[in-house]
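Checklist before submission:
- one chain only
- standard amino acids only
- sequence pasted in full

Submission:
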Amino acid sequence: MYDRVIQLAGSFAAGALASGALLAFAAGGPPSNVVAPRSMAARPAAVPLPAVAGASRLGLLRNEAASGDELSNWQLSNALFDRYDASGEADDLYEALIWMERRRDVSGNAQLIARVVDRYCGQRVVRWHWFCVEGE
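Returned file contents:
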């Protein structure tokens, strides 16, 4: 028992000595380059979303939608549907459907579902989707 107490006291003393030495060297060192944070007014304004190029805008929306942002998900789905309308690329239509299905708030999808049913149910990518199958 006595040996254990001596061992703990020795460990504590060694740790205290090492910590004291580190603090002594740190206090005598050169000052760190600490800069006060800038005020909110001095920060540069964020780039507005429409000013960003098309592909990077979709990338930003994908990142935000993947993190669970419902508005970004809705905007991404609309942007992909618009891109499909312009280019006819089936990958855009398929990706828009995938993002639309990932939304938790299905009631917010009413406009998108109506768009799919009105415009895209004849497309091969969407033909057998549950939005387009009658009786489902």
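Reviewer check: Confidence is low (pLDDT under 50) at residues 39-49.
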